[in-house]
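[step 3/7] inverse_fold.run input=structure_tokens len=362
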């Protein structure tokens, strides 16, 4: 491979001093990918004119656009391979519902056969596919005065190939990223400040593929983010966050990055968080966990929590009707020791999806 370097030229034809230098091969490869993209767009355009719009066409175009994403480096390829290897060898010893036990086993199985670099495309369990609700969230954030900030935070990153909102052409928002942005926007509307502001630690229960951590850091948070999740899902967070360039550890300690912990770390975590200013984040997660696991965390953690951002199925999760989230969270709020809570519907006309926003004022 030749190492000849070619300076990148910006639009006004001045040599951009700070632009990354690319090798001749990289530029040739990019040109080849642009030509392929052009070809795909011509096909899509023809099909649109002849057959009209179809979701398959939107998928086809988006797939084409991913051709513009950067190719993984050797280090990033190694992260993908580590994900596959780790998933194959894990035993999921978490206290989880039968439903999550089944989902996680499926994720492990798919890791053996599916394209590993598309690890957020295989199923709906971690990276949700588009749905009507996601478009409602998108339209809500579009109407907000801070729309430009939200648009940036909702943008997909090139790792894992998370599900996009296919019908939104500008900004390339992800479905989960849009939902994470909406949580933050509504929290700020209810409480009057950013969730991560004035915190030492964001403690998140059930982090999905890790996007909330990425989003807060992109928005400016530089404290510690701790995620507690089941071992299988932790592997997705580990891969995704590392691919995003965020430092991770699986030790019970606070870092400028993300600590990825599991149930067995809870006693040490409670000690670690004592005396810290903690924001508790649990969107569609604590409400999906067995009560015995929730009891290992709360009320013990309340004294250090100064903010709460929770989304919960109400009064129960459809798949776990015997567990009353309404009863659990009512008691949770009473036991918080003086935090102020607001309960709001995610959508004004849907009663079974609730936000609980809380703050402990000094
Ligand atoms: C529906 S996903 C929500 C992910 C993310 N919070 C979001 O809003 O996109 C539920 C999350 O909770 C985690 N979770 C569910 N039950 C759990 C348990 N018993 N212990 C630890 N994590 C659990 C899942 O692994 C997953 O990360």
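[step 3/7] decode complete -> sequence:
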């Amino acid at each position: 491979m030749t190492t000849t370097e070619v300076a990148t030229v910006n639009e006004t034809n001045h040599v951009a001093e700070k632009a990354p230098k690319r090798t001749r091969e990289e530029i040739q490869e990019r040109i080849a990918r642009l030509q392929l993209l052009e070809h795909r767009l011509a096909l899509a355009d023809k099909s649109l004119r002849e057959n009209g719009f179809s979701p398959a066409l939107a998928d086809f175009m988006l797939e084409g656009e991913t051709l513009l994403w950067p190719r993984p480096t050797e280090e990033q390829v190694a992260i993908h391979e580590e994900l596959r290897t780790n998933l194959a060898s894990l035993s999921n010893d978490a206290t989880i519902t039968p439903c999550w036990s089944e989902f996680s086993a499926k994720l492990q199985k798919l890791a053996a056969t599916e394209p590993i670099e598309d690890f957020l495309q295989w199923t709906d369990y971690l990276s949700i596919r588009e749905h009507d609700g996601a478009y409602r969230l998108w339209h809500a954030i579009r109407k907000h005065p801070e729309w430009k900030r939200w648009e940036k935070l909702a943008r997909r990153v090139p790792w894992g190939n998370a599900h996009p909102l296919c019908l939104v052409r500008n900004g390339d928002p992800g479905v989960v990223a849009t939902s994470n942005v909406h949580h933050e926007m509504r929290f700020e509307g209810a409480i009057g400040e950013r969730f991560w502001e004035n915190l030492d630690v964001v403690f998140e229960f059930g982090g999905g593929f890790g996007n909330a951590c990425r989003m807060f850091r992109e928005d400016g948070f530089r404290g510690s983010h701790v995620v507690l999740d089941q071992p299988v899902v932790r592997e997705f967070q580990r891969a995704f966050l590392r691919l995003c360039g965020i430092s991770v550890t699986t030790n019970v300690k606070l870092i400028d990055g993300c600590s990825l912990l599991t149930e067995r770390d809870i006693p040490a975590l409670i000690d670690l968080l004592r005396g810290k200013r903690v924001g508790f984040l649990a969107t569609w997660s604590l409400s999906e966990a067995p009560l015995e696991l929730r009891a290992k965390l709360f009320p013990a953690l309340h004294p250090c929590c100064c903010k709460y951002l929770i989304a919960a199925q109400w009064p129960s999760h459809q798949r776990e009707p015997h567990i009353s989230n309404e009863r659990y969270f009512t008691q949770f709020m009473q036991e918080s020791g003086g935090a102020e809570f607001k309960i709001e519907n995610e959508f004004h006309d849907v009663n079974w999806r609730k936000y609980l926003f809380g703050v402990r004022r000094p």
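[step 4/7] annotate
The pocket of S-adenosylmethionine is lined by residues 94-96, 100, 176, 206-208, 229-230, 233, 283-285, 288-290, 293 (CB under 6 Å).
The chain is about 40% helix and 15% strand.
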